[in-house]
Amino acid sequence: MVEKVPPEVEAKYAKLMRLREALAAVAQEKASLEALKAEVEAVLEEIRKVPEDARLYKMVGSVLVEKNRDEIVKELEERKEDIEIRLKALNSQEEALKKDIERLTQELQRLLGGAGGTAAGGAG
Known about the structure:
Layout: H1 7-49, E1 56-60, E2 63-67, H2 69-111
Antiparallel strand pairs: 1-2
C-alpha cells in the first residue's frame, strides 16, 4: 500500500526544488561574471604595459574609435567595479539560498519522520 504524501510535504519539496534551481542559476551567473572580471583584468594588465602615448582603439558597435589610454583604463576599472558589486550581491544571494535549502531540507526530514538521519541532504 502506498501512503499519500501530505500536502505540506509536497509544498515544501516543491519549494526546495525551486530554491535549488535558483541556486544553480546564481552559480551560473557568478561563473559568467567571474570570467568577465578575469577578462577585464587581463585587458587592464595589457593596456598598462602600453606607453601612454600609444594609439588605442575601442570597438563601438561596428566602428573602431581612437581613445587615449587613460580613458580606456578608467572605463575598464569602472566596469570591473560594477562586476565586483554584482558578484558581492550574488554571493549574498547564494548564501541566503543555501541557508534556506538547508533549513527546508531539515524541515522535510523532520516531517518525514527523520528519514535520512541528520544529514543536510544536498544543501550545497
